[in-house]
Amino acid sequence: MFKSLSGRFLILTMAFVMLAEILIFVPSVARYREDFLLARIERAQIASLALLANGQVDHDLEEELLLNAGVYNVVLRRNEARQLVLSSPIPSPVVATYDLRDASPWLLIRDAMVALWTPEESVLRVIGYPTQDAGMLIEVTLPSAPLREALMIYGIRILWLSLAISLIAAALLFFAVRKVIVVPIRRVVYQMARYAEAPEDARRIITPSNGITELREAEEALKSLETELTSALKQKERLAQLGGAVARVSHDLRNILTSAQLFADRLEGSDDPTVARMAPKLVRSITRAVTLTESTLAFGKAQEPPPSLTRFSLADLVNDVLDSERLAIEDDDISLSADVMAGLTVRADSEQLHRVLSNLVRNARQAISSSGKGGEICIHGEEDEECWRIHVRDTGPGLPPKAREHLFKPFSSSSKRGGTGLGLTISQELIRGHGGQLRLEAEYEGGTAFEILLPKGDAEINL
Known about the structure:
By secondary structure, this protein is an alpha+beta fold. It contains ten helices and twelve strands. The longest helix is centred in the middle third of the chain and has 55 residues. InterPro entries: HATPase_C_sf (IPR036890), HATPase_dom (IPR003594), His_kinase_dom (IPR005467), HisK_dim/P_dom (IPR003661), HisK_dim/P_sf (IPR036097), Sensor_HK_Regulatory (IPR050736), Sig_transdc_His_kin-like_C (IPR004358).
């Protein structure tokens, strides 16, 4: 119970109520002590006035008057004269004198605490004003034991009363907290556990209904989280289905491409100059397609195989990419150009880098073509001491804001109609396999620029 939220509220409430009662107890005890002493002074004054009225009393009556007043002796100051009115033997010397005429609250509190925590029997002198202006002052001596006993009885009553109040207040708060806070929290926990059993089921997403602002915000945040998770799980399921479909399609496509490769091999022996010039490019393209389908079938997952690193001429690879892309350009006013350092060789997987550059150039060409305006695409290659840098820049319409937000997310970054949004995702995965990075280099009005960084050493590039 005490480990629960409501149980701890119960303990804290009792503690705070008891603390408040202690803060009330101290001045109330001081007030009770003052009233006790003033009552003794008033009784002593009444006894003194009875003596003054009769003129003389015998010894037994004087003892009875002092006993009823609860004092040892009484001194009155009247008409500038100080007179011992009633007296009896004092068992011990006076140890303390208390003047109630101008006592401050702090002084009364201090004297009350001293009286409460001093168990020794002693004689006290108390000075105060007589009631009804029956003199200038009255002074009495009295034992300390009755005062301390009365303070102890009063304190015990206050203690039990405080304990009862704290228990009642804590019980009320306990049930209030359970109803207002604990029960709604348990409902949220139940909804979380229920959702965890079947997160794909959108019907189990929590519906915010609490009227408390903080709990309502927690429910809304949980709803948003569950909604996003359900969507992600559905997307994961679609990706798994797509992976299975790709494997089946790759199997059939491999057979088709193998047949096409056989026919393309025969074209290389043609006497037609155009066919002889285009046949090697066709053979290389079909070979890449066959290699891609075979690697997809062999790997069996949505993960690319590790790159096979070799050294090759970047200029030759770039020209091959641009030549392949020029075949897709019909009447569009689109120009393709290469700006690669002479003799620049890179260490990478040529097939994977070809796919990356082809994806970037194809995206740029399709963006320029869809805009209805001409443009230019340029591949620039350079190197420094740490890495090779390849820039793919175009003068097209640029990326829309929505595409920039989900640039490298699958099924999200495509800005063209009918696109899958997988090109940049696959390209980034391939470059990461090299320990490099693919990033949006610059976004400026009228164009887009991507940068590929390939490390020269074994360490990954961290920007």
